[in-house]
Amino acid sequence: MRSPTSTRGWPVWAVGLVLLAGLLLVGLPAFGQAIKVTSAVPDTTEQGVVGLVVAIAGDNFASGAKVNFYVTGTKNPGGIAVKSVKFKDAKNLEATIDVAADAQTELKFDIEVRCNGRTGKGTELFKVSVKTTGGDLTPPGTVTDLSVLERSFNKVVLTWTTPADDAFDAGSGPAAQYDIRIRRGTLECGPFTMADWADDGATWLRSDPCAMKAISGSPDAPWAAAAWPVTAIPPDTEFWAALRAADDSPQGPNWSDPSEPQLLFTTAAFPPAGWTAPWTTQIVDSCPLADTSCHISGMPRLGFGAGTQYPVVVFGKDYSGAVARWNGSAWSTEALPVAIDTGYFRYDFAIDPVTGDETIATIVRGSTGNDVRFYRRTGTSWQTDVVATGSVDWASLGFDSVGHVPTIAYQYSKGKTPSLRVAQRYGSTWSTETVASSAAGAQARPVVFDPDGNPAVAFAQQVSGASRLAFAIRNGGAWTVELPDSGAPGAPYTVNDTAVAVGRGIFSVLARYHSAGDNQLRYCRRTVDPVAWSCELVAQGLNIGPIYLAADDSGTTYVAYRAYGQETNFIMLVRATGSASWAAEYIDWNAMGQLSGGILIGPDGKPAIVYGGTNDATGFSTNSVVFARRQ
Question: How far apart are CA 189 and CA 532, in angstroms?
């Protein structure tokens, strides 16, 4: 039998390896050879193109290659979707792409090719241009003088020269829209790039871990000095600010580039000069910015566990109720198994001072009318009573410290004549009394008691066609209504909010008088022998919001209010017993518009307050519930 022939000195298997290596070098790339991407034809296209075939040249491609288009320096596809890839040979691919109508146009695209575990990239090989259909093609001018006009601990006012619809040509009229962005200025959060504007403002806030604020609005006339406030941002913090302007062209807006140079600014430290800061704050609960299904709302309410200094907070979360309890080191939150109306003062929360039971009074809406319901938590279960039915609205709750009798104030309407009613539970039965008629808008909060256990409320009452602050107290089995204040002088005012407190047996009331261009906070104090009221103006301004009032056993009075839209968010005015003046204290920069809450004197004798916040514990914009205690 003859052996196979071979070349002298080379066995047959060696010759086969040489031939295979030659085929690999000539036809297919070896496993370790780097992929190169060198060009794309065409290298540009318009927005909205579908089914475009792009010839990609390079080296060491292989069958089964994958192709991606990314805005240069990012992993953002920028509106380009690769539909299919055809392998021609080791140096040529054909990618079929769809280009979105709003695809990224400001920067070029990288082209990335992946095959057999290897990746190669060519930079700035492709570009998308704005689809032109006629009309305005000139974007507004790029702002070059962005700066800070005013600065405080929770607010800056930005200023710049306003661009025009076409660059800075005043004859073209104003631009149509601003997109203003505020971004953290930490080491890991640099200035803005165009990739930061690939999504709209709401999406950007959730996707960029450095995002803080996204603001939009309509520009003024060209060549004016714009002044835009940015509020509710953390104190003593560095930020980047940038803006773009858009026109209203018929083919879709033309956007300017981001302002250049971008602005790096720092908010002022807090508290501002002249304020004291004895308040400590905690975030009770908040919604993660990325969780669009999470929602916190509805006027948080505060209580203290019987025999402890641990606060308990009830609030609206995810369009239902939630309760958060402090255990000495952390807050734990659970959903309430009972229905509560988290609207404006339509529920209240209190803790029985004797049993420690958590209780809730709330309006429950029905198809034919509403109920006032009372819930009591015993152990882990909730018991419920129907207190009243019909045309009822809002509910305030308090406990008599003498007999720990639950007491609920609410509004009852019959025809056009609303009245203020108070219900108390003796044993298993509720007894209801009418306190006053003509009490439209009479949100009587809270319900308080004198040292003998007599309930008292403050509310708004219509007197001779005018809105007046009223005070009612039951003594000897009958209710007496008093009018502490003759009203705010000047233009017609409406009493929008009221509050009442008692300290050392002395009642005081607070009212917010509202007119079209002004708000006034008026404070009144009641003496007993003889019964008389003295009133004074304690604060005034257009943007004064929810009000709070408390008094401790020493007679020291605390007035808190939200001055939203102004430099200071939450202010506490304190007046000690015997003092003729108020001392102002700063509570917190992190407070949300009308999400009011409640104030109580804690078991330690110090006031505490809960309210809605605009930021979480890290200072990022979200919904939150905040607890603050005076030290």
Answer: 61
